[in-house]
């Protein structure tokens, strides 16, 4: 479903991603781990189409058979790619339900479906809120405005549930969450796992992977994937720490 | 003096000319201003220029009583003495040549119509095209409309229902004839003839407008609405609105306006006066969408308007809500004079400027009575190369003990070539008053746009969404149908400003 080949990206002339290769198939859950500054969040944002990054011509990313790098962010979203933000953005004055209805209808229109009316959408939203256990009052609160850190992350998962993407990228969704919030968010994600939906979990800590068990773990270091393995790789990393990586990888250069 | 019929000129639009102007409108992109067309309607327009004879001619054409003419002449003399336009606003423009404007234009067939059914079908079509059906079978439910075409009111709907409650809603000209005692008592009582340059000009030459009187204890059964349309070329529009809410009365009044797209600037200098007696409430909402000029700043309306309300009685309340998206130049400060004890003044404003538009708008809240309260919420949005200023005065006089005033001014910038400015004037003359002022300036952030985009919402819709959120506190005060129009209007006005 997602093929990333030799992805190189820079910001203001500083190279951050130095050639990433990754293949994600339907139903799979991949974890991307790595120390601070290794390019994890950049990778997530480049996939989602953030305009601040310059992607090299030689790079290629295909998603569901389409050339992702040619598309603006909104078209990637309409195709079925979702990014849960590390720092969800506030939009004062716009309610969650209005925002999500607009988003869902954009996607529906792009797929040739009829727009949902307010009633149908409200039913759908209510169902998703029950599924992932969020306060019904979320619907009428302004997008992330005045939300606590944990509420913001849960709101991202709610959006994920409503938008039903084919590929969801979670950028450090665990950061800033206490253990209870982490469990709630993880349960939400687990309920949304399915055979035709893939996940990329970007995380700094192994902790998240206790709750959401990945099929593959990749270690990103200085803009490259330097190790790939099963879920046990995360445990090894946790045990040895990122210094272990620094010593072995930097010795190779 | 020559008889008025000799001095009348008939301006007819030749067919080719209409086609041309419609084509121009199309070329300039209908998406940007969808009301830019003009109607082919025979009009009688008086010769350009302004002197005492012009004032007499207008008064004569309107068959006004002597007292009205005297009132106008007094205004004309004040205007002539005032001499120069005010220059303190933060706007730059070529001053209009007041001698090259025609001060009166009326659809020719309008003369002596007794009912709406006799109104020129072209005019009815014009309003229908604007979404304002006037004919009996298509009338807006729940809203009574007075439609003003160039200088004259062409019809008022729902008069019967209103009359049952004793509510008077008619054109200003009709009020002068039918209700002279009310007009004489209140006209100029809030905005005197010599108040300022444009108010004096309006007082001398005003052509028509709406008149509202809501009697004691009556809650007006429906919203009242006036729709202003400038059609004729080289004419100014000078309408006069007078709203009186007697003791305990309540009324909600809506005002909308559009004009064709023309290359030259057109002048609009209106005066609105509101009087609220004891325990009365008046809500006045405006969606101002005069033609703003093209992307290069050519053409557009000069909107120089004086709007003021007087909370005359105790516990009275006047609330202004305005959404300003049109006009090349806006100079407008809907204000409240809080005379009655416990009276309340409110001003909720969204002013959006794009391309080369300039707006200098805000309010004045003058606290005179005890325990008076005022609230000012101003949201300005600047895009393109436009300049947008909030200018507001809060004055608390010595007798206005325990008065409170709260001001919030938020500015939003789109792009890096526009300007947002705030000029608050605060003048407090007693110690018990509490006056707060908050201001913020922000830009639509890249993060907000990317966030919306990552949810499938394109950049233009994203901007419109962020702006609508920004304006929510003001839109919440608009009647439902206006809120929808305002939301759409902001989107249209900003099309193409991203990128």
What would your notes on this structure say?
The complex is a heterodimer of chains A (253) and B (499). Chain A is of the alpha/beta class and 253 residues long. In chain A, helix 5 (149-163) runs parallel beside helix 6 (179-192). Chain A contains 9 helices and 13 strands. In chain A, strand 12 and strand 13 form a beta hairpin. The model of chain A has no long low-confidence stretch (mean pLDDT 92). In chain A, 39% of the residues lie in helices and 26% in strands. Chain B is of the alpha/beta class and 499 residues long. Chain B has one domain. Chain B is 24% helix and 34% strand. Chain B contains 13 helices and 24 strands. Chain B has helices at residues 4-7, 15-27, 52-61, 66-82, 121-129, 159-164, 172-178, 180-186, 197-205, 446-453, 459-470, 472-475, 480-493; strands at 9-11, 43-45, 105-107, 143-149, 152-156, 168-171, 210-214, 223-229, 240-245, 250-258, 265-268, 271-276, 281-288, 300-311, 317-324, 329-332, 335-338, 344-353, 358-367, 373-382, 387-396, 404-413, 419-428, 434-443. In chain B, the strands form 3 sheets. In chain B, strands 6, 7, 9, 11, 12, 14, 16, 17, 19, 21 and 23 form an 11-stranded mixed β-sheet that branches. Chain B has a 10-stranded mixed β-sheet with strand order 5-4-8-10-13-15-18-20-22-24. In chain B, a hairpin with a 2-residue loop joins strand 4 and strand 5. In chain B, helix 3 runs antiparallel to helix 4, helix 7 crosses helix 8 (180-186) and helix 10 packs across helix 11. In chain B, 57% of the residues are buried. The chains are: A alpha/beta (253), B alpha/beta (499). Chains A and B meet through helix 2, strand 8, helix 3 and strand 9 of A and helix 10 and helix 11 of B.
Main attributes?
heterodimer, A: 253 residues, alpha/beta, Rossmann fold, six-stranded mixed sheet, five-stranded antiparallel sheet, 9 helices, 39% helix, globular, B: 499 residues, eleven-stranded mixed sheet, ten-stranded mixed sheet, 13 helices, 24% helix, 34% strand, disordered N terminus
